[in-house]
Amino acid sequence: MIAEARTILAGLSPAVRTALAFYLIHLFFQPKIAASQIATGFALLAFGYALAKREIGLAWSPLYPALIVYVAGSLVAALVAPDPLASLLELGEPLAFVTLPLAASLYAREPRLVSWGFGVLCAMAAFRSVQGVVQYATAGHAGLEHRITGGTTHVMTFSGILLPIALATLVLAIDRRRWWHIAMALVTVGALALTLTRSAWLGYAAGAAAIVLVRRAKWVPLIAAVALLVIVLAPMPFFSRLVSSFDPQKSSNLDRLRMAQAGVEIIADHPLFGIGPGNIKETYPLYRLPDAPRFRIPHLHNNPLQIWAERGVVPLFGWLLLIGLAVRQGWRQLGEGGERSSWGLAGLVATVGLAIAGLFEFNFGDAEVTMNWLDLLAVAFATALPERAAIEQPGIGN
């Protein structure tokens, strides 16, 4: 393994090796946004130098069109907002999206780096999962306002980072049955359960259901029966948390209903360009219904509503296109068989899981979650289009 690593590194220029090193640092420190983006910045500097020296090519990704539409639409929405400068400063997507071309280009330059990237993602998720489990075991369940964070800034960030990796490793555990894939699938879903985050639970259930339908359709009745038994026998904190999802009078549920109603009204008044990035917090009180539990909110807790109300119809189309392109690419790889089929399904279910969870939480607005998802898709869809693997793929000596 060490000899192979040396061989791989020997085939890369110093600039590409530097970009790779900082990119891997970014992956491991992803839950810490400041450290992650500093590492990304250094990786981009080295990557830009390598591009200029023609030591690496800019690789193609089928997701680029959607990201361009989303960013362009968001930029227009910011420029026409009441306070353009303030809205422009709220546009953090370029920093979150930029890791995709960086990763895709590194993997196209040296395909064996795919296992490095996924290995570091798994190491990060395992470390944070164990940290979360220890946090739960030592501090106990101190109420929904003090849920585990696994060292991240918020429980929703923690669950959003774990969700796609938990689903991806579940696919690999089923397809490959290697011990470390099985261990990763168990430790991540265990930590995800302890977050008591219903949106993440629902996203995981949707992703797992997709895996079963694709890989083990005959098992559906048995798995449904087992799932029902697990729910019935679940410890009370988990059971009550799940059951509370169906109580419309519960404060958190009523809050989301009132946010959705306000979001629809905002969209009706500003359908084309929204109210501008970063303006939901100040605008919501004007549309808030009297019985809404909170007077001010950070966002609408729903991806499509938040994007449309804040940025307008073009970014909404960009987001929907991004989900659609990721699902389409995953579906295409399913028919290719072997390892690419496994990775295709992993990317597909990770996307489905986050999209479903995003109906109840604005996870697309969480930079740590978005970067993690795109980094995972870069792994899953690496060399997805071999005939267009790179816009330019020169050798080091050229």
Low-confidence stretches: 384-398
Shape: globular
Q: Strand fraction band?
A: under 5%
| SS class | mainly alpha
Order of helices and strands: HHHHHHHHHHHHHHHHHHH
The whole-angstrom Rg is 21 Å
- What is the count of DSSP helices, taking H or I runs of 4+ residues? 19
Provide the residue-averaged pLDDT: 87
Number of domains: 1
Descriptive report:
The protein has helices at residues 2-10, 14-28, 33-52, 64-79, 84-89, 93-97, 99-109, 113-139, 155-176, 179-194, 198-215, 220-233, 236-243, 251-269, 280-287, 303-311, 313-334, 338-357, 367-380. It starts with a helix and ends in an 18-residue tail after the last helix. The protein has 398 residues and is mainly α. It is built from 19 helices and no strands.
SSE arrangement:
Layout: H1 2-10, H2 14-28, H3 33-52, H4 64-79, H5 84-89, H6 93-97, H7 99-109, H8 113-139, H9 155-176, H10 179-194, H11 198-215, H12 220-233, H13 236-243, H14 251-269, H15 280-287, H16 303-311, H17 313-334, H18 338-357, H19 367-380
